[in-house]
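thread from #wetlab-drylab

HS: before we spend reagent money on co-crystallization trials with LLP, can we at least see a predicted complex? here's what I'd submit
DV: go for it
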Amino acid sequence: MPETALPAHFSRDPDGGLMIEQVEARLVAERFGTPTYVYSRAAIEAAFTSLTDAFGERAHRICYAVKANSNIGILHLLARLGAGFDIVSFGELARVQAAGGDPAKVVFSGVGKSAEEIRGALAAGIGCLNVESEAELHRIADIAGEMDTKAPISLRVNPDVDARTHPYISTGLKDNKFGVAIDEALPLYEWAHAQPALEIIGIDCHIGSQLTDVSPFSAAAERVMALTHQLAERGIRLKHLDLGGGLGIRYTDESPPAAADWVEAITSVVDADPLGRELPIWIEPGRFLVGPAGAMLTRVEYLKPGSHKSFAIVDAAMNDLMRPALYGSDMAIVPAGRGTGERHPGTWEIVGPICETGDFLGHEREMTLGEDDLLTVLGAGAYGFSMASNYNTRPRAAEILIDGTNCHEIRQREPLESLWALEKLPPAGD
Ligand code: LLP
């Protein structure tokens, strides 16, 4: 089988071991144990720069979607590059602040913002609340009124565009729970316009994630522009257009568009319009910025060959990386360093130690494997650690940021006792 192409900043050393920038995966595994997430700083920076370069002089803001990877080390890196942030909870805002990010450059999305979250975001000086329903709009107006402030808002409109991606991560169809149907947005904007406690600053949409075709982005931008005109006719002038995230990456054999193609798909629509040309474009990429920059290292514990199926049981599981179990996602798994065991060619089910049949990282992988071999799941920088859990009382993995020849431990492996540190024995009863 041809070797899977490695993402930028990942390479092979002469012995076939995996390198992340100038660091051998084998050394990371020896020093920090496995499973461990590794991220290439250069890869994150290059992805960010590819977007800023594509916009060039055109006014824009890149609001990194924190949910993709919320480690404060990564957020800090992106804040220093000038990123704003897209958040979906007060917890994510607190992380952005802990990482040195500016709340004024943060947009707050999400269908279920609690009153406490709205209050906290306004008190912190949030840049924009992306409002997802009429009920939320009323709640924000009430809270901002009580706080004697003006809430900066944008309506997240649902443009009813098919993103043609996995149904669980498609968000812009009228069947989805997200946003306000685009043809129902006008009266809400008019209502908001009349509220002293609300300041309309923009319009927002996000149609889905892992899009590998740019045409839905153009279709969404067209619908957003049409509404922007209707608003302008009613004296409602926006200050930005937020066109969401969703740009796909290569996991196995996808051919995702380049950053420049994505930006072009949006700007070709917006800049063809005199009203659009005046407005800064905000985008909310998550996966594109951090996905290809990250990988998860795991070690083969046991080989269990069988006449029907052969299993390679590794030390990472669905709690560490949920995407394969949750979405059936196909993620590339490549050798990262030879272990001490005898090696066997085969077609392997790569599975974890968790007591569930759904606990797999990859199906039918043709590889030569031995016990103690080091493997790497590629493209795991986004929605990897951030979706990890402690199921089966498994401490979450360590996270290491690689920078040239340096390894920075940006999150240590969870100490076991911390897993029940907040639990208490009930009083002794009789
Ligand atoms: N903005 C909003 C409002 C979002 O809901 C999302 C992702 C993004 C931006 C960033 O999308 P991205 O550029 O990363 O595609 N756990 C799933 C992905 C869920 C995405 C949810 N929303 C996965 O592992 O594929």
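DV: The chain has two domains: 10-33+293-420, 42-286.
HS: ok that's useful, forwarding to the group
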